[in-house]
């Protein structure tokens, strides 16, 4: 897929955390599509009796967490079709998708409470997010990265997690630092990779 050099090694990990800041989501979307393609190919090989034959034999990734953080709500339209396609194609639910719009106040803030309530009701009734127009629910504000790492560590004990970040350098140090911290204080080992622009 058209993803940059730091992300080419994603297949070495059973678990991946993919973080795209703004347009940095582009290579992460390519990885997500590659994961789905390889998972389908692997299922086809198993069903046909070929075991792990073909190109899928090198494929290890069985779980992916994708966080896209963008400032503008309009940016969510860039990948709406792809996000819907992934949500539909991911039959085994190996990919967890998260959109975060930072121009809106975070969850729990009184200023965004009404829109969050309307968004939840609309999503529950129609299965479509009112903010992004896709099947992927959007969140307001920045992710709590420590909580993200903690949850992934709790769900993947004794595993190695590849963390791949693409975006402006502003987030690199925080994500790298959390990868080191959680590798020390949990049984999960996080290996950080980044590409900045």
TrEMBL record:
Query: Which N-terminal residues, if any, form the signal peptide?
Result: none
Ranges for domain Ferric reductase NAD binding come to 13-178
What does UniProt list as this organism's lineage? Eukaryota, Viridiplantae, Streptophyta, Embryophyta, Tracheophyta
Question: What is the name listed in the Swiss-Prot or TrEMBL entry for this protein?
Answer: Ferric reductase NAD binding domain-containing protein
CDD domains, A to Z: NOX_Duox_like_FAD_NADP (cd06186)
MF terms (GO), sorted A to Z: NAD(P)H oxidase H2O2-forming activity
A single Pfam family it belongs to is: NAD_binding_6
Provide the alphabetized UniProt keywords.
Membrane, Oxidoreductase, Transmembrane, Transmembrane helix
Q: What domain of life does the native source organism fall in? A: Eukaryota
The transmembrane residues are 15-32
Cellular component, GO annotation: plasma membrane
């Amino acid at each position: 897929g058209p993803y940059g050099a730091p992300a080419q090694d994603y297949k070495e990990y059973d678990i991946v955390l993919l973080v795209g800041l703004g347009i940095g989501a582009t290579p992460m979307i390519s990885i997500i599509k590659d994961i789905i393609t390889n998972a389908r190919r692997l299922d086809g090989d198993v069903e046909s009796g070929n075991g792990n034959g073909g190109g899928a034999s090198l494929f290890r990734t069985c779980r992916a967490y994708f966080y896209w953080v963008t400032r503008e709500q309009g940016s969510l339209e860039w990948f709406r079709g792809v996000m819907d396609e992934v949500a539909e194609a991911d039959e085994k639910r190996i990919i967890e998708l998260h959109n975060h719009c930072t121009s809106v106040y975070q969850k729990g803030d009184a200023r965004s409470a009404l829109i969050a309530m309307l968004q939840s009701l609309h999503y529950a009734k129609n299965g479509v997010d009112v903010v992004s127009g896709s099947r992927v629910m959007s969140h307001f504000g920045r992710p709590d990265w420590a909580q993200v790492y903690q949850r992934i560590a709790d769900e993947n004990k004794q595993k190695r997690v590849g963390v791949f970040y693409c975006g402006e350098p502003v987030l690199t140090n925080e994500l790298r630092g959390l990868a080191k911290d959680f590798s020390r204080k949990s049984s999960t080992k996080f290996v950080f990779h980044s590409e900045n622009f």
